[in-house]
Design goal:
Layout: E1 5-13, E2 16-21, E3 24-29, E4 42-46, E5 49-54, H1 56-75, H2 81-93
Helix pairs in contact: 1-2
Amino acid sequence: MCLGVPGKVVSVDGFIAQVDFWGVTRQVRLELCDADVEVGDYVLNHVGYAIRRIPPEEVEETLALYDELLEAAAKGDGVDLLAADMRGELDATGGGGS
């Protein structure tokens, strides 16, 4: 299973954006994104490509869901494949914070 990770766009230069993932900034390609992206937008990143601009009305709910998944993964109380996959994605990009 593959999982996209949300991040906040901090700069845009053509088809390259600098995106903040929980305090870690990475370059993300924008060619595949479903909508135009501006500084301050949140995007869903998958293997270095923004695949979706998260609508402003969905950002808070999306980030809360990811925080919940990260917390569950950190506890390690049982097998949660989605949380484990998300932790792997974040670890691979240097994100995750905890």
